[in-house]
Amino acid sequence: MRGVIASSSGAPTRLSLPAQVGLHIVLLLFSGVMLAPFLVMVVVSLIPNAAFLARNFSPENFSLQNYVRTFQVVPFGRYYFNSIVVSVSVTVLQILISSLAAFAFARLRFRGRDALFLFYLATLMIPFPVTLIPNFLIIKALGWYDTYWALIVPGLFSVFSTFLLRQYYRGIPLDFDEAARMDGASSLRIWWQIIIPLSGPVLATLAIFVFQGAWNDFLWPLVVTTSEHMRTIPVGLAAFVGQYSTAWDLLMAGSVIALLPVLVIYILGQKWFVEGIALSGMGGR
Amino acid sequence: MTLRTPPCSLFRWRPDQQWEGYLFILPSFLGFLIFIVLAVLMSLGISFSTWGLTGFRGVAGLANYQQLWRDPVFWQAFGNTAFYIVTIVPMQLALGLTMAVGLNQAIRGVTLYRLIYFMPVVTTIVAGAIVFRLLLSTNGPVNQWLAALFGALDIPFTPPNWLGSSQFSKWSVVILTLWKNTGFTMVVYLAALQGVPKELYDAAHTDGANAWQRFRHVTLPLISPTTFFLFIFQMIGAFQLFTEPFVMTQGGPANSSLSVVQYIYLAAFRDIRMDKAAAMAWVLFVFIFAFTLLQNFMQKRWVYYESE
Questions:
Q1: pLDDT at position A23
Q2: Cα-based distances in Å from B25 to A98, B30, B89, B159, B235
Q3: Is there a contact between A175 and A240 (Cβ–Cβ < 8 Å)?
Q4: Is residue B4 predicted with pLDDT exceeding 80?
Q5: What does the radius of gyration of chain B's CA atoms come to, in whole angstroms?
Q6: Deepest in the core among A27, A188, A229, B3, taking most CB within 10 A?
């Protein structure tokens, strides 16, 4: 049985028992290295700083006190709210906007289409630091500095998402569109009722990819926000380090609070995350 | 792409698609024009101007670039970034491939191991940097574990000052980045390994190739397009390292871990030298572009494409 499973997953050969044990030891070592920072984070977040510095891990020291204090000194609720508003808006709107453009690039015929698409692709190479300063100036000129507009609007336009969706839409037979048009369907209806339903998996993986990027983004929100109530979680957390540089108990509690929802979503939707990454990797081939 | 439509409807819908196409693209194109095209042109313009707190103050020609050339901190930041690239990229590829090969075997628990290895990838990097500040502090757990290990082996050990010495600060950034990103490399490699046809291993086995020879002469060439992609991807990422040194070491001590993007940030938003920062961003872009082109040119020598 094992041999059959091995060949279907492309594994080279079945391993002998000692080799299996050896391999598990190596893999467990790697796991330990990957997990240790999380474990330290959780343990230190549950004990007072003095107890940690004295390495006193006796059970009576453990409590949720640090979490209570963290919520008292830092408006984490507000950071959460901001991060959710920004990440959800960016994910939904970016995918809608990219999908509309990708549909036109892949399935409509109009003058200048291919030249325009090449122009899009040519900008894929431009690194973020190049557009950082002018975009900051544009946001200031628009009067959007330190608002949700600044955090959301520049994130809505992604050449990468447009490219990825266009490649996918090209793979759907054009006969579908033609049949629908014969029945009098408009392009908008074809996009919404045929193409979108047919691209469920690619939209899901792209959504996770975009959401994760928006949720963890640091440099842009750092640059365009200044007041405490506009901070997203990463920026709020970094400011927290500035204020409490060695209050490890509070810092670790803050880190756990920041990480917990993402890790829970990740563990529940592991398959989609991993496929999203593999997809982005294959996009480079 | 051919058009297969009955003649009657051909006349009706093709002119429609002309303006429909533009309408579908319009939202995307507006943003593209402002936040990408306009931004790139502005950035180029700013880099050739004098631009401070009050905005445009005159044409500067190459002055900003000449200033960079004479700025020792810029050179240091560039040297640090080069260090990050030559350490992080190969180490990450080697570690990620090792993990992926380990998981591409007929053993139990592959999904669980993959779940664990990928956990740091979804972690907010700021939180990761905070934990590593704790782990790598002078009396922190890492030095404690190292002391115990060296003590057990009876080797004299002076705990390194990971974050506070110019000698080790860059390595702290490297360690954090490896922890954070190796799971990504592993997942992409694992997908590539699972695409290698089993028949090729069987054939090599029949020809008497041992495990190492099969890996070296079957696996490595077949996954070389993935290696190429990961190499470029990680190199571009390492060129743009920002959050890791920003949160963990603030670029210090004495700029020993300062990255180029961090220096761009400081020039623009601490020193209010938008012009100098824009010039730096363009130098960075030119380097990224040149190295990517170089790799693309060199790939003929080591990347194997099945279709060729």
A1: 92
A2: 8, 9, 37, 59, 32
A3: no
A4: no
A5: 25
A6: A27
Mutate to test the interface with B, among A24, A87, A108 (most CBs of B within 10 A): A108
B94 touching A (Cβ < 8 Å): no
What secondary structure does DSSP assign to B131-146, as a single string?
A: HHHHHTSTTSHHHHHH
Cβ neighbours, 10 Å, residue A59:
6
Confidence of residue B7 (pLDDT cuts 50, 70, 90): very low
Three-state SS at B49? strand
Backbone angles phi, psi at B51, to 5 degrees: -140, 110
DSSP state string for B53-86: TTEEEEE-TTHHHHHHHH-HHHHHHHHHHHHHHH
Are the beta carbons of B17 and A113 closer than 8 angstroms?
A: no
Q: Exposed/middle/buried for A159, CB within 10 Å: 0-12, 13-18, 19+?
A: buried
Whether pLDDT at A283 is above 80: no
Q: Model confidence over B140-162: pLDDT tens digits?
A: 889 889 989 998 888 888 888 89
Q: Which of residues 53-72 of B touch A (CB under 8 A)?
A: 55
Q: Do A33 and B179 touch (CB under 8 A)?
A: yes
DSSP sequence for chain A = -HHHHHHHTT---PPPHHHHHHHHHHHHHHHHHHHHHHHHHHHHHHS-HHHHHTT---GGG--SHHHHHHHHHS-HHHHHHHHHHHHHHHHHHHHHHHHHHHHHHHH---TTHHHHHHHHHHGGG--HHHHHHHHHHHHHHTT-TTSHHHHHGGGG--HHHHHHHHHHHHTS-THHHHHHHHTT--HHHHIIIIIHHHTHHHHHHHHHHHHHHHHH--HHHHHH--SGGG--HHHHHHHHHHHSTT-HHHHHHHHHHHHHHHHHHHHHTHHHHHHHHHHHHHTT-
Of B15, B212, B84, B17, nearest to A187 by C-alpha is: B17
Segment (H or E) for B262: helix B260-269
A278 touches chain B (CB under 8 A): yes
Mean pLDDT of A58-84: 89
B116 vs A contacts (CB less than 8 Å): 31, 34-35
Q: Which helix (H) or strand (E) holds B111?
A: helix B110-122
Question: Which pLDDT band holds residue A278 (cuts at 50, 70, 90)?
Answer: low
Please give the structure tokens belonging to residue B273.
Answer: 């030298």
Residue B6 confidence (pLDDT): 46
- Tell me which residues of chain B, numbers 195 to 254, contact chain A at a CB-CB cutoff of 8 Å: 195-198, 201, 205, 211, 214, 219, 225-226, 229-230, 232-233, 236, 239-240, 242-243, 246-247
Tokens of residue B45, six digits: 């313009």
- Is residue B189 helix, strand or coil? helix
In this prediction the ipTM stands at 0.86
What span, in angstroms and rounded, lies between the C-alpha atoms of B103 and A31?
12
